[in-house]
Amino acid sequence: MKIILVLLSLVAVVFLWLACKQTKYAPGNFPDRQLRWGSGGGVVGKETTYTLLENGQIFVRKMDGDLTETGKVKDKKARMLYDMIGSLGLDKHDFQHPGNTYDFIEVLNGDSVHRISWGEKNMPVDAKISDFYDQLNELVK
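Structure (tokenized):
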């Protein structure tokens, strides 16, 4: 009787572990909702883009190179950053004032893309958005 109980408990633990396992995405197979950020410009127009997915995976694309996975953050941290998208209004507004060099944040949701880019000295971005950008860059240091 004890053996059956132990085996059933073990099977239950295995099923729970499998049920809680998150989807791992590969380039070209991303979910509809994505958070991208990066910087670019300069003489050669080089742009580096990072993509954070809701499961915490982080990808990078430099210039026109391939998209490669560069790290992962905890699900809780990724969810917190995705929640900040709504509180900052990043999913509803566009702000296009890049300078010679610029920073940007993009929110993709299906076919909808909202991009905020800044770098023009006369048109600074809101300090809250700049702080959010700094938080995102901390993920890839």
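The beta strands are 33-41, 46-52, 57-62, 68-72, 95-97, 101-109, 112-118. The first strand starts at residue 33 and ends at 41.
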